[in-house]
């Protein structure tokens, strides 16, 4: 255990995609992701995240319109770098846009963007979104080259993909978890040194959140699937409050398990 000075606040963005997944299993309106967003706001979320996928498997265009109208919290729209999504973002102008890689056949966002390989494709999207006043984030693996490219592209924010760390915890592979945590810690430091605002997300659970929340350079975590799944057992309000509490206490004490 090391103690780090982690007193700066850490925002929680609640990803409500999988409320829409359940709704869409039957069609109709229930459960309503906008209602979930309002509960999340009351439970201590600082923002709402929603991924409008090309195949609309969960969040719909109407959900985005309603979130923009009915929500007081900032909306972070996750989207692929396509002309269709750019037009939607420019139409709604959410507070933030996080550009993610997207393949139709994947179950979830399985890895970060290869911003280095896609530099020329991403450049006009980042530029248009930034010029229209949105805060633009790129979802990347914890890799210095990706951070440097995100910075060069003009993104103000980078979200680090925490999936490899969280998977290692599920696999109970302590060595891999320690390795992945070190990668996240190093990338958060490197990105902050480059002047990027550092976020993180993907696969975060009650078990995984403490070490991630203790990384002092991180200012926002985006958490979805676990919160919505756990809410089946504990209720959405108390599940979010518990996650918020774990984040806050990790931030206060700076207790981070390192190998
Ligand atoms: N951040 C980004 C950029 C994502 O694409 C996702 C969902 O894939 C999340 C955070 C939330 O991940 P999870 O649902 O696993 O908590």
Describe the structure.
The protein is 49% helix and 17% strand. The protein is α/β, with parallel strands linked by helices and 259 residues long. The chain has one domain (11-253): Aldolase class I (TIM Barrel, Alpha-Beta Barrel). The strands form two sheets. Strands 2-3-4-5-6-7-8-9 form an eight-stranded parallel beta barrel, surrounded by eight helices. It has a two-stranded antiparallel ribbon with strand order 1-10. Strand 8, helix 9 and strand 9 form a beta-alpha-beta unit. Helix 9 runs parallel beside helix 11. It is globular, with a radius of gyration of 17 Å. Residues 1-6 have low confidence and may be disordered. It binds pyridoxine-5'-phosphate. Pyridoxine-5'-phosphate is lined by residues 15, 51, 78, 98, 100, 108-109, 139, 159, 201-204, 222-226.
What is the secondary structure topology, with strand pairs?
Layout: E1 2-3, E2 11-15, H1 17-26, H2 33-42, E3 47-51, H3 61-70, E4 75-79, H4 83-92, E5 96-99, H5 119-131, E6 135-140, H6 144-153, E7 157-161, H7 163-170, H8 174-193, E8 197-201, H9 206-213, E9 218-223, H10 225-234, H11 236-253, E10 255-256
Parallel strand pairs: 2-3, 2-9, 3-4, 4-5, 5-6, 6-7, 7-8, 8-9
Antiparallel strand pairs: 1-10
The structure holds pyridoxine-5'-phosphate (PXP).
Number of strands: 10
Strand content: 15-25%
How would you sum up the major sheet? 8 strands, parallel, barrel
- As laid out across the biggest beta sheet, the strand order is 2-3-4-5-6-7-8-9
When the domains are counted, the total is: 1
Q: Ligands in the structure? A: pyridoxine-5'-phosphate
Spatial separation of the terminal alpha carbons: 8 Å
> What is the H/E string?
EEHHEHEHEHEHEHHEHEHHE
What is the CATH H-level superfamily? Aldolase class I
Q: Unreliable stretches, pLDDT < 50, 5 or more residues? A: 1-6
CATH class: Alpha Beta
